[in-house]
Amino acid sequence: MSVRKREWTTPKGVQKSAWVVDYLDMSGKRRLKTFRLKKEADQYAATASVEVREGVHVADSASATVEAAGKLWIASAKANGLERATIMDYERHLRMHIVPFIGALKLSGLSIARIRAFEDELRAADRSPSMIKKVLVSLGTLTADAQERGLVARNVVRDLKGKRGSGEKRQEQRQRGRLKVAVDIPAREDVKALLGALKGRWRPLILTATFCGLRASELRGLRWQDIDFAKREIRVHQRADRFNDIGRPKSLSGERTIPAPPMVMNALREWKLICPKRTTGKFDEAGEKVIVLDLVFPNGSGKVEQLNNILRRGLHPAWMAAGVTIESGEVDKKGMPILAPKYTGMHVLRHFFASWCINRKEDGGLGLTPKIVQERMGHSTVALTMDRYSHLFPKADDADELAAAEHAFLS
Q1: How far apart are CA 214 and CA 210, in angstroms?
Q2: What CA dihedral angle connects 289, 293, 294 and 300, to 10 degrees?
Q3: Within 13 Å, how many C-alpha atoms sit on residue 386's CB side?
Q4: Rounded to whole angstroms, how far apart are CA atoms 202 and 271?
Q5: Which residues contact 292 (CB under 8 A, 6 or more apart)?
Q6: DSSP 8-state class, residue 227
Q7: What long-range pairs does 83-87 form, CB within 8 A, spacing at least 24?
């Protein structure tokens, strides 16, 4: 690999010069790349020589644009059978946030500095911090796919992520992300009031969410065959996405078995007697339509229930009936404050379930270990559980703990 200066005269008689990196790639093909400054040429030569030696070098001419690589990435996601909602998110990130800014740029031209500039461009275009984070994750996945295809040597997006933030900064972010009781996690008094207000078809669903911690998608996809009344267990093996398509849980750890308290099982037994059934479109020998009892919490026709129906018709009215409300900031025609549920969304019940598992001693039970809480929640790692809920675990009294350790050591 050599770096040499090239000089020439234009047809108009103007003297020009540039620096050329002349090298052989991994297949022995000669490659030339031109730079305006020697410093840039030397830097490229140093990097390229290492990449060629390690067998990962991709010349600019063999690279692809971000937009072209994005199309390959989407095609790969579809071929791998990713959920329709996930693919739609990827396509939206690509179409609305990535291609308009860096779509024409070659992957080999991406650098940490260019990614930082891309972030600034998104920020200037009024993208929210959370959206910028999601777009960068998608860009990193896109680049990883292109790297596997041999279209780029490095994944600079992942390199940027690795360089960012000290341990103290990450810890500070974790502290800010901790959930607060009576703000993010329903207080025990609020949940008791909610339970007293539950009735009708929504009672077994909300009880199951509160004391078994299933995600909304898992509740919507739950089948009767996955409920073991004899063992008082609920098995999670499938979920319903936002398009009501049934599929497996998003991760292997999402498949789990959860013990259910008697109150939940009794409510489910009663509900099973009146649960809507689904017609299969088939007919039996007598010519009657075949009707099956399949989903535990279906809509009126036995099909997958919409999440917004659960919230709008079930959970939020129950919070209101229980008196667990706050002022919405709006007023009615008489000038009186309009009340709204204090807690919104199904996920708050999942947070309560985690806190209930951790602090069962308050109810005369045994507090569960972080590992068991992770398994009950279906988290991929115990670190994820601790990042969210570590502050809820009972803390031992330092003085008593040290005294006991000293006594054990000296005895």
Answers
A1: 8
A2: 80
A3: 7
A4: 10
A5: 277, 278, 280, 302
A6: E
A7: 83/241, 83/245, 83/247, 83/250, 84/241, 84/243, 84/245, 85/241, 85/242, 85/243
pLDDT by residue for the chain (411 residues), tens digit each? 788 898 889 888 899 898 888 878 766 788 788 888 888 888 878 877 777 676 666 666 667 899 999 999 999 999 988 888 889 999 999 999 999 999 999 998 888 899 999 999 999 999 999 899 999 999 999 999 998 888 887 888 888 865 555 454 455 445 455 788 889 999 999 999 999 999 999 999 999 999 999 999 999 999 999 999 999 999 999 999 888 888 888 788 899 999 999 999 999 999 999 999 887 667 666 666 666 668 999 999 889 999 999 999 999 999 999 999 999 889 888 889 999 999 999 999 999 999 999 987 656 666 789 999 999 999 999 998 998 898 888 776 555 666 666 666 666
Three-class SS state of 114: helix
Pure H helices in 285-364: 307-309, 316-321, 347-358
- Hey, is 16 helix, strand or coil? strand
Per-residue burial over 340-356, b if 16 or more Cβ lie within 10 Å, else e, is bbbbeebebbbbbbbbb
Helix (H) or strand (E) holding 276: none
CATH T-level fold of 188-363: hpI Integrase; Chain A (1.10.443)
Q: Are 295 and 222 in contact (CB under 8 A)?
A: yes
Residue 235 C-beta-side C-alpha neighbours within 13 Å:
11
What's the CATH class of domain 66-164? mainly alpha
Number of residues in the chain: 411
**Of 156, 141, 148, 56, residue with least CA distance to 106:** 156
pTM, full prediction: 0.70
